[in-house]
């Protein structure tokens, strides 16, 4: 394996919105999604940059964008929190602890590393930079379910202290099952 020394840096909101097409391309490659979703995702990502607490980081190798992570403060007004509440209600909650978690979290909306650069610690470094100095008590993210959690994403999240909030959860509009994971901050 070739040694990779990425530069991890925070992006301002203008930098993020201008570079959204390149950042979304990394997302599409990392997730092996159809390129037909590109324009829609660019617009969604640009809209997300307007959420309170928005923070974005990128990973660069030789001036090439090879990773992106972003998130923002959770809010009861967001679609995602409505989904979390629905999932917790289906399990008989939210419990007092779960209610506290979903009342004070930073939503890790996206974390992606280009496939050619995975396995070099880039995701870990981006997560640490993204979640550094957050006022929230928790970070929450979702990731597609994988049998036996046998992929690099699960391995990374578990090593950072993320535990289960919801498992095999189906978000409205997506039939894939997801794991929703939570970690106390700071990591």
What do these coordinates show?
It is a single chain. This protein has one domain (7-184): Aminopeptidase (3-Layer(aba) Sandwich). Strands 1-2-3-4-5-7-6 form a 7-stranded mixed β-sheet, with helices on both faces. The chain is 36% helix and 28% strand. Helix 1 (13-31) packs across helix 2. It is of the alpha+beta class and 187 residues long. The protein contains 6 helices and 7 strands. The two termini are 28 Å apart. GO terms for molecular function: acyltransferase activity, transferring groups other than amino-acyl groups. Pfam families: Acetyltransf_7.
Condensed summary:
With 187 residues, this protein is of the alpha+beta class. 36% of the residues lie in helices and 28% in strands.
Index terms:
187 residues, alpha+beta, Aminopeptidase, seven-stranded mixed β-sheet, 6 helices, 28% strand
Largest sheet: 7 strands, mixed
Number of helices: 6
Our estimate of the beta-strand percent is 25-35%
Distance between the termini: 28 Å
Which second-level CATH architecture applies? 3-Layer(aba) Sandwich
Series of secondary-structure elements, N-terminal to C-terminal: EHHEEHHEHEHEE
Protein name: N-acetyltransferase GCN5
Keywords: Transferase
GO molecular function: acyltransferase activity, transferring groups other than amino-acyl groups
InterPro entries: Acyl_CoA_acyltransferase, GNAT_dom
């Amino acid at each position: 394996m070739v040694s990779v020394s990425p530069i991890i840096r925070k992006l301002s909101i203008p930098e993020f919105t201008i570079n959204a097409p390149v950042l979304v391309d990394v997302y599409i490659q990392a997730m092996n999604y159809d390129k037909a979703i590109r324009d829609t995702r660019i617009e969604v990502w640009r809209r997300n940059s307007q959420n309170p607490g928005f923070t974005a980081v990128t990973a660069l190798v030789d001036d090439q964008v090879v990773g992106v992570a972003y998130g923002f403060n959770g809010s009861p007004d967001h679609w995602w929190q409505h989904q979390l509440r629905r999932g917790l209600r289906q399990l008989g909650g939210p419990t007092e602890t779960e209610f506290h978690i979903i009342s004070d979290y930073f939503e890790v909306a996206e974390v992606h590393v280009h496939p050619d650069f995975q396995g070099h610690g880039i995701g870990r470094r981006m997560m640490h930079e993204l979640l550094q100095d957050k006022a929230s008590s928790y970070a929450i993210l979702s990731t597609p379910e994988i049998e036996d959690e046998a992929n690099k994403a699960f391995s990374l999240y578990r090593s950072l202290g993320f535990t289960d909030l919801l498992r095999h959860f189906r978000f409205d509009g997506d039939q894939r099952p997801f794991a929703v994971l939570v970690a106390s901050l700071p990591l």
